[in-house]
Amino acid sequence: MRKDLLTSLLAVVVMTVFLGVVYPLAITGISQVAFPGNADGSKVSLDGRVVGSSLIGQEFKGRAYFHSRPSATEYSGNVTFFGNAAPNSVEAREEVREYMKAYLRLEKPFDKSLTSADVPVDAVTQSASGVDPHISEANARIQAHRIAAVRHLPLSQVEDLIAANTDGRFLGLLGEPGVNVLELNIALDKEAPLK
Hints:
single chain; mainly alpha; 3-stranded antiparallel β-sheet; two-stranded antiparallel ribbon; 6 helices; 5 strands; elongated
């Protein structure tokens, strides 16, 4: 029995050192060498300061910026989750209804023909993580009317910025194209700085 206990203890110590120290350090080192930007969180810098991450959504306020998807975590990268309410849940239905009202209240003054039927699903629902950095092209094109009016730009110029900041499908096949909100807002500030 003593031999079994010593063998078990030795196995625990060896596995703890290997899986708890050696393996994580090796993977961290390999990632820092092979993918330094990704390993450091895909930080986006502007004028020498970090303004966000291209992988984590963040909140933009005001009428002069594109807005991200709704988030249950207030875009906190260390507390990601989504509402687990079923599609027929009264709570989920009310949440979507509130998001829809807020979206239409913000966007309709700039596009009188906009109806709730035109609003893409990503504008009124949370992503699975609550911190998705992308919105759909349809959502960005609706918001483009507001941005063009507030920043006194031609709509076509704002739509060109959307096209330039749209990521395609993964490997050309998987997923849908998406617009990275942080990168789009940075490009927008470069093109037409707020005064």
